[in-house]
Amino acid sequence: MSERLLVLVRHGQSEWNLKNLFTGWRDVDLSPKGVDEAKAAGKILKSNGLSFDVCFTSALKRAQRTLDLMLDELGQTGLPITRDLALNERDYGDLSGLNKDDARVKWGEEQVHVWRRSYNVAPPGGESLRDTGARVWPYYLHTIQPHVLRGERVLIAAHGNSLRALIMALDGMTPDEIIKFELATGEVVVYRLNADSSVAQREILKG
Hints:
Layout lengths: L4 E6 L4 H4 L13 H16 L6 E4 L3 H14 L6 E3 L16 H8 L1 H9 L11 H21 L4 E5 L1 H12 L3 H5 L8 E6 L5 E7 L2
Parallel strand pairs: 1-4, 2-3, 2-4
Antiparallel strand pairs: 1-5, 5-6
């Protein structure tokens, strides 16, 4: 049996991250810095001797391009890739496309903070982190986890909140713990699982 390897990578900085805009499901590309971050993540994976059998990403180009850039660095551009909106970023609803500072002026600092940082309060027309988890967790359990448990090495390129929702489930975090957990753009999180699907080891790789 091969190692049960699951690697999560948040996409590189997007054009809207750079502009301080709520992005959510809006399909924006990587910034030049984001391209560099994605390539750097690929180099980190390669320098740690990691390679993969199968990949998953969201339906959004910033995650897809991050995956493509990492695979190019790894010399593994021919791997099977599944793209699914279940891994999309949290939907920010009416906040999507707004400057975060402008949103604070419109709704107030405290309300915007609650929408951004709470676990179960959704912005108007959007998703909470709990709502995001409600689509990420089943997709992971039914579609991704079986590959890992078969000994296939799995790479996921997705988004800050979809990955935080998954990490919450994998690590058994409470709502209070996950709202304090941040995942930087281009950050690489490596899991090794036990045969019963529990986590044997989690490591955040640095360049």
